[in-house]
Structures are given as structure tokens and as C-alpha cells.
Design goal:
This protein has 177 residues and is mainly alpha-helical. Helices cover 58% and strands 6% of the residues. It contains seven helices and two strands; from the N terminus they run ααααααββα. It has a two-stranded antiparallel ribbon with strand order 1-2. Strand 1 (120-124) and strand 2 form a beta hairpin.
């Protein structure tokens, strides 16, 4: 993971989240909440899981000694105690939460340095187990986790008759000059 790749992934994350929420909002609220048999049940709960997971990871990343700006930005985003904790009660509120969180992610990605990404980050997982891993690999996991669950959400949306459209990272990679 490089700082440039982190910025690209943060931009992709923001772009895809906007597309996902715009698509989800075309469903009647009851349909967005309907259990469709997926791992997190509904479109809403799948999108919520991504937001909860991102918030948890950002709080872990904020433990890095050079992450003061991230710590400050997260003051309005309390750390969830569960990967299923609802970050908002309805899709509109979750979309607003997501948009604000995505801005934090983009700003944080722009501030990352190669030295930070190479350094280990010590954190505790949700079970309380301690780990120490290179920050760059954890950032890669962070973005991969989002993509994985957005794929689930896009499948749920498609099954409900909503096409999200292009979802490829390629769409946000700038052309070579």
C-alpha cells in the first residue's frame, strides 16, 4: 500500500458509496430493510455493516502516533461496539453518516506517508485479542472489506430490480498523461 493507492481507494470508496446509496434510495424503505437472506440480511444492514466496520477501523488507525488529525475528525463518530451496531435508524441518516465518514477517509488518506504505512499498528479486535500488523496491510484490508460487502449489497439491489451500474475501480483510475 502506498499513499497514492490509499488516496485512489478512498476516492473509489466515496464514489461507490454514493452510487450504492443513490441506488438503495430508489427502493421503498420497507424493501431496503427487508431481509433478503444475505449475511447481514437487508440492503440497509449490509450498508450499515460497512459503515460500522469502517468506523471501527478508523478508530484503530487513529491510535497511530501520527494520526492526531484523524483522532480529532473521529470525535463525532463514536466507536461502535459491534459490527452490527446501527449507525443510523434509516437509510437517509445512514447515507448522511456515510458521506461524512467518507470525507474523513479521503482527508486521512491524503495525509498518509510511506513511513506511517510501513510502521506497525497495535490494536485489539472485537474479541479483545491484541494484534500488531503493518499499517499499510491493514489499510489494504480496510478498503478490500468495503469492496467485498458493497458487492453483496449490489447483488441484493440487483435482485430487487435496481442496477447500480459500473462498479469497477477502473472507472476512477485517471488516464495516463
Amino acid at each position: 500500500m502506498t499513499p497514492g493507492t490509499a488516496v485512489l481507494m478512498a476516492r473509489y470508496n466515496r464514489w461507490m458509496n454514493q452510487r450504492m446509496y443513490d441506488a438503495a434510495r430508489t427502493l421503498p424503505p420497507r424493501e431496503a430493510m427487508r431481509d433478503r437472506g444475505a449475511f447481514f440480511g437487508s440492503v440497509f444492514h449490509t450498508l450499515n455493516h460497512i459503515a460500522a466496520g469502517d468506523t471501527i477501523w478508523l478508530h484503530r488507525f487513529a491510535q497511530h502516533p501520527e494520526a492526531g488529525a484523524l483522532r480529532e475528525a473521529l470525535a463525532r463518530f463514536p466507536a461502535p461496539t459491534s459490527l452490527r451496531q446501527e449507525m443510523a435508524p434509516a437509510l437517509d441518516g445512514l447515507q448522511a453518516y456515510r458521506a461524512a465518514l467518507d470525507e474523513v477517509i479521503v482527508r486521512w488518506a491524503h495525509a498518509l506517508t510511506p513511513e506511517q504505512l510501513a510502521a506497525p499498528l497495535t490494536y485489539r479486535n472485537m474479541a479483545g485479542q491484541a494484534h500488531s500488523k503493518p499499517l499499510g496491510a491493514l489499510v489494504q484490508h480496510f478498503f478490500n472489506h468495503q469492496t467485498h460487502h458493497r458487492g453483496q449489497a449490489s447483488t441484493l439491489l440487483f435482485q430487487a430490480g435496481v442496477d447500480v451500474g459500473v462498479t469497477d475501480l477502473l472507472a476512477v483510475i485517471p488516464d495516463a498523461t
